[in-house]
Hints:
This protein is α+β, with helices and mostly antiparallel strands.
Amino acid sequence: MFGPSTVAHTILCGVSSRPLAPLRASFCLVLALAACNKGAQDARAAASRPSLQPKNVQVERVAIHALPRTVQVSGTLAADEESELGFKVSGRVASVLVDLGTKVKRGDPLAVLETSDFELRVLQTLAALQQARARLGLPLVGDIDDVDPESIAVVGMARSVLEEARLNQARVQELVTQKLRSDSDLDTAKAAYEVARARHQDSLEEVRQRQALLSQRRAELALVRQQLTDATLTAPFEGAIRERHVSPGHFVAAGGALFTLVKTDPLRLRLQVPERESGAIRMGQSVTLTLEGDTTTHEGQVARLAPAIGESNRTLTIEAVVANPDGALRPGGFARATIVVEQAAPTLCVPRSAVITFAGIEKAVLAKDGKAEERRIRTGRSDKDHAEVLEGLSDGDQVVLSPGNLVTGQPLVLTK
C-alpha cells in the first residue's frame, strides 16, 4: 500500500514544477487535511478503548491432593416396595378411606366392603357347628371338642347289644355241652355275636365321623370369619397411595387391583455401571446423588449387585439404598450419582473456586508474569474444596481464586 506522501511525491515528480505550481500547492493542502483527519480518528479510537486496570486477586498453586476415586453414573429412583392391592373376597365397596398421596401405616384400613352377606354366613356356619357338637353330646357353645367315644349314646347301645350277644352265646354253648340245645342254635348265637360286635365297631366309626364333621364345621366358621375380616382392605406396609382405581358402590372381584401402594423410605436407586468400571464396585460403598432441577445432595449406600453383566448394554445393574425420611425424593425421578470406589487417591487438584464454567466449557485464570492468562481445562472428580485437573494445568501453576471477569493480559496485584 502507498501512503499519501508516496502518492504525492510520484505525482509531483512526474510533471513540470513551473506550469503546475498552483496545482501542486492545492494538492499538498488536501493531503495535509487528510492526514490531520486520520490522526483525529486514531485519537478518538484510543480514547474509547477501555484500559486494563490492575486488579487485586488471591492465588493458589495447583498441587497434589488426595481425593476419593469415584464413578459417575445416572439412574432412576424406585420405591423400596410397590404393590397393587385388592380384596381377597368379592363384594360391593361400601366406603373408600384413602386417596391419591395418602400416607398410611401398616394395618391402616383403605376400603371396606358391605358386610351383611359375610355376617349371615358366619351365623349359618355357627349353627352348623352347634349341630355337630350336639350330635357328640357336647354343649352348643364351647371351644373343647374332645369327647370319649364310649360315652356317646350310639356306642353305648351297640356295646349293650354286644354284651347281650356274648352272654347269649355263652349260655347256648353251655346248653349244647349238656345236650340240651343243638349245634345249629350255637351257630346262630355265634352269628348274632359277630353281628353285634360289628355294630359296636360301626358305632365307634360313626363317632369318629361326627368328630371329623365337628372339626370341619369349626374350620368353616373360621373361614367365614376370616372373610368377614377380609371385607376390610388394610395396608400391608407403610407407604403412600400412588394410584386409586375404585369408588364406593363398585362391585369388585377377588384380587382386582384397587390401589397401588409404594414404600418411599428408603428408596432404591437403580444404576447402570459401565463394564470397565464395574470391577471397582463393592457392597457398602457410599453413593451421593442429585436430582434434575435440585442442587441438594443426598446420601446412599450400595446394597445390591447384579450377578452378571448385561450382554445388550455391557453394564452392571446395581441398587443403592437412599434414606428418604421426609419424602423429599420421589420414585421415578432421574438421578445423577457418584459412587465412591476409593476413599483417598492422590491426584492433581485445583481449588473449586478457581474453575469457571460457561456453556459446558471449563476455564481457569492463571497468574503469570504479573498478568492474567485464561486457560481452558478439564476437571474430573471433586470434593467440597478441590476439583481434579485432567487437562490444561500443571503442578505448581498459580490460579486465581474467584476470577470473575478477568481477561487475558490484565495486570494483577497478588494479595494474601
